[in-house]
Amino acid sequence: MIWIYRILFLPLLLLASPYYLWRMRRRGGYAEGFWHRFGDVPPLPAKAAGVKRIWLQAVSVGEVLAVSPLLESFKREAGVEVYLTTTTSTGYRLAKEKYGALTAGIGYFPLDWWAFSAAAWRKVAPDLAILMEGERWPEHVAQAQAHRVPVISINARMSDRSFKRSLRFRALMRPLAVGITRVLCAAKRDEQRFKALGFPPERLQTTGNLKLDVSIPLLAEADKAALRRELGLGAGLVLLGSSTWAGEEVALVTALKSAREKGLKVSLLLVPRHAERREELRGLLEKSGLKFHFRSEGAALGTVDVAVGDTTGELRKFTQLADLVFTGKSLAPHEGGQTPVEAAILGQPVLHGPRMTNFRDIIRSLTEAGAVRKVETHSELISVAVELLQDSAQREKLAAAAREWSEANRGATERTLAVIRAQLGTDNL
Question: Domains in the chain, start-ordered, CATH in brackets?
C-alpha cells in the first residue's frame, strides 16, 4: 500500500503545486526554512550519549501553543531533547519566538514523499515520533517503522469529515493502524472512531484535550489599559470577533452599530483567522463609515470604533480585553469552527454558530455546563450579541460557568506524559 502512495504522491503534488505555491505567496513568510519541506533539515546538535530525541509535529498556531506544557516538561528531563516541526508559516514564526530555548531545533515538516521524508529522518534520527491532533502521514509513519521508531499520536481527533472520508477509504488507513504505536485521543468519541477504522483497541486511550491544560499568562490591569490604548479601544465594552472568516465580520460590524443605536458604549475588536485578508477587511470597514485601525500598522493615534488584530500570537491577549466573544468559522457557509477553549479558560462569555464540527465534543461539554450560547444565523448573532452586551448578569453567568468548566477539565498533559514516559523508558518527565 505504501508503494501505491509513493507512486501517486509525486504527480498529485505536481498537479497541486501551483495552488499551494500561490497560497504560500499570498500568506507570505515561507521563504525562511523553505527547503526544510524537501528534507533539508536545519542544523541540529549531534545526539549526545544517553539522550533521546523526540520529533514533535504540531501543524499550526493552536497546536504549537498547546504543546507548551509538554516542551517545558521535556526540557526538565536531562535525557530528552525535542526537534519541533510545524506546517504553517504562522506556526513556524511562533515556535521560533517561543521555544528556541526549549528545543534542539525548529523546522518545517517535510512533504510526505519518500525521498523528502527519508532525507529528513536520516538527519533528525529521532528515538520517538509524536504527531499532534489530525496529523497522520503515511510516509512519515512508514519511515518510523523502517527505523524501528515508535509513533505516538497525541490529542488525536477525528472530525466528522475526516471520519466519513476514512470510512470510504478504510484500506488506506490500515498502514497507519499498524504503524502508529499509540493513539492518545482527545475525547471518547475520537477513540470510538479510531476503533471503527481498525485501530487496535489496546493501542487506543482517551487522555483528554491538551488544549484544556494550556496556561495563559494573565495581563495586569495596567497592561490591559496599555493594550487598549495601542489598539485604539476607548472606554466601554469590547465585542471580540475571534478568528473570524468572511461574512462574519459583516454581522459583527452590524452588531456594533445596533448596540450603539441602543445607547451602549461599545467597540469592536476583529481578529481574522487569516491576517492576509486585511485588505478585504479594510474595504469592508471603509464602506461601514466607522473609524478603524490595524494592529500591524503600530499603535493607534486615537480612539477608533473597530480595531483589527491582524498579528500572530496575540489572540490570547486580545481575548482578555473582551466582554463578549464570538468564535469564528462557525456560521454558514463556513464549517468546522475555531477553538472556543482559550476564551473559556479565560472565563469569557462565548457565542458560537452551529457549525462547530471540529470542536463537537468541546462545544457539547461547554453547552452542558451552560458556558456558551449558540446562534444559528448571522442575524441571530447580531440580535443575541446586542442582547448580551445590554445584560451584564447574563454575561457573568456564562463567564462563571466557563471558569468552572475549565477547572473541571484539566489533567490531559499528565496523562499524555505518562504514556510518553513509558514509551521512552524515563520516569521523571
Answer: 34-213+410-424 (3.40.50.11720), 221-408 (3.40.50.2000)
